[in-house]
Amino acid sequence: MGRKDIQPIYTQTYQRRRRSMIIYSLLGVILLVAIGGWLGYKYYEKQQLKKYPIAGVVLSQNDGYVDFDALKKAQVDFVYLKATQGAAFSDDSFNSNYSRSQGAQLPVGVYHVFSFSSTANSQYHNIINQVKTNTGSLPIALYIDYYGTYSDDNVDWQATSQKIIKLAKQLTHYYQRPLLFWGPKSVLDHLEIKIGTKYQLWYSDGTLGKPNGDASFLSVPGKPTIDLSGTKQSFTQAVFNGNQLKWEQYLSANVN
């Protein structure tokens, strides 16, 4: 019978500890690389945002009470308020937000979330009944994106595009102001609309710092924080796709 090579117990303990140290060291390196990459990306994103001096926030009932005077002091340049969605929904905070926004003297716009399952007429009547004349001074925005089970595979874009354009024509005629089509570029491309004074674009997935064609506005990724009188709050944010001079020209051409 052969003799077994039995190592002292302290040798086995040392080897286990050594393996554990190697594993923990590798995990630490991976964690540091991940943190470094995240910090690097956030720094890059912050640098890209500096290219857009005009920034605003997008508000709905999910944001709770918001101090509009504090937004202005924080150098927020414009605000978009959710007003309606589909054929029947209205945002619970819209009337309150709109009323309080007027005292801050910020350029304000309102937006409607488009429903694939509702007719253009029913959505149009929901908007004008809820919003009335409280449209602010900026172009009305129409947010269009897939939700629920809707996707590029099951939406009839020929019929849907006609419905969206009909709603857009109704709104621009009733309110006598331009309209912003807001959503992912891949969705808005289905509309084949002519961009100009009447119809404008707002890309929800435009890459900051990159050419974004004719888009007037771009959404900011995530929900960055804004310091409001010493309290940091996260908001959905957007930027105007241009410099200060172009913003002033835009306001002059579009503000009612």
From TrEMBL:
**GO terms, molecular function:** lysozyme activity
Give the protein family: Belongs to the glycosyl hydrolase 25 family.
- Annotated protein name in UniProt: Glycoside hydrolase family protein
Q: Does the keyword Membrane apply?
A: yes
Name the UniProt key words of this record, in alphabetical order. Answer: Hydrolase, Membrane, Transmembrane, Transmembrane helix
Q: Which domain of life does the UniProt lineage start with? A: Bacteria
Lineage of the species this protein comes from: Bacteria, Bacillati, Bacillota, Bacilli, Lactobacillales
Biological source species: Lentilactobacillus senioris DSM 24302 = JCM 17472
**Transmembrane portions of the chain:** 21-41
Gene Ontology biological process terms in this record: carbohydrate catabolic process; cell wall macromolecule catabolic process; peptidoglycan catabolic process
Q: Identify the Gene3D superfamilies for this entry.
A: Glycosidases
Pfam families per the record? Glyco_hydro_25
**Transmembrane helix listed as a keyword:** yes
